[in-house]
Design brief:
Blueprint lengths: L1 H14 L1 E4 L7 E3 L4 E2 L6 E5 L4
Antiparallel strand pairs: 1-4, 2-3
Protein name: Cytochrome P450 domain protein
């Protein structure tokens, strides 16, 4: 139950923000999972106040 609540809070927080992906080299760590090897770098561009 707590995991679901944290996921909902994170989803609401991300929905209020503007994120940008800078230029980066993305390599697959595992073909089956299709996940990037070192992760993704995201730049925070701004946010909207909560309602």
């Amino acid at each position: 139950m707590a995991t679901t609540e944290m996921m909902v809070m994170l989803a609401r927080l991300v929905a209020r923000t503007t994120l940008r992906l800078p230029a980066q080299r993305i390599r697959a760590a595992n073909f089956a999972a299709l996940s990037p090897k070192p992760g993704l770098i995201v730049e925070f561009a701004g946010s909207v106040p909560a309602q």
